[in-house]
Amino acid sequence: MSEARASIRELKSRLSHYLRLTRAGESVVITDRGVPIGRIVPMGPELAERLAAMRDAGQAQWSGRKLAAVKPIAKVRGRRTVAELLVEDRE
């Protein structure tokens, strides 16, 4: 994947050009006085497509069903919440 560079001023004046580059698969690094401050990157595939590709490549297995609910491993004694216990422990 190639990468173009554009200053803020240039990006503002030629936004359509840089969006076409991004649509074609190129990243655009945005600079402020020569210092990189951001990046415009092409959209990646959707989650369902990535999961299907992993399944097809043998990197993941999934039956398509939701996972079964699991009972909590531990319970909190008393009336305090887990959040309250954590705050107390951090003090």
Please provide a written account of the structure.
By secondary structure, the protein is of the alpha+beta class. It has a domain at 1-59: YefM-like domain (YefM-like fold). Helices cover 37% and strands 19% of the residues. The protein has four helices and three strands. It has a three-stranded mixed β-sheet with strand order 1-2-3. A hairpin with a 2-residue loop joins strand 2 (27-32) and strand 3 (35-40). It is flat and about 60 Å long. The termini are far apart. The relative contact order is 0.11. The mean pLDDT is 90.
Record keyword descriptors for this entry.
alpha+beta, flat, 3-stranded mixed beta sheet, 19% strand, YefM-like fold, single chain, 4 helices, 91 residues
Question: Layout of SSEs?
Answer:
Elements: E1 3-7, H1 8-13, H2 15-23, E2 27-32, E3 35-40, H3 47-56, H4 82-90
Parallel strand pairs: 1-2
Antiparallel strand pairs: 2-3
Give the structure's gist in a few sentences.
By secondary structure, the protein is α+β, with helices and mostly antiparallel strands.
Assign the CATH class of the domain at 1-59.
Alpha Beta
First-residue to last-residue Cα separation: 48 Å
Please compute the radius of gyration using only Cα atoms: 24 Å
Low-confidence stretches: none
* Assembly type: single chain
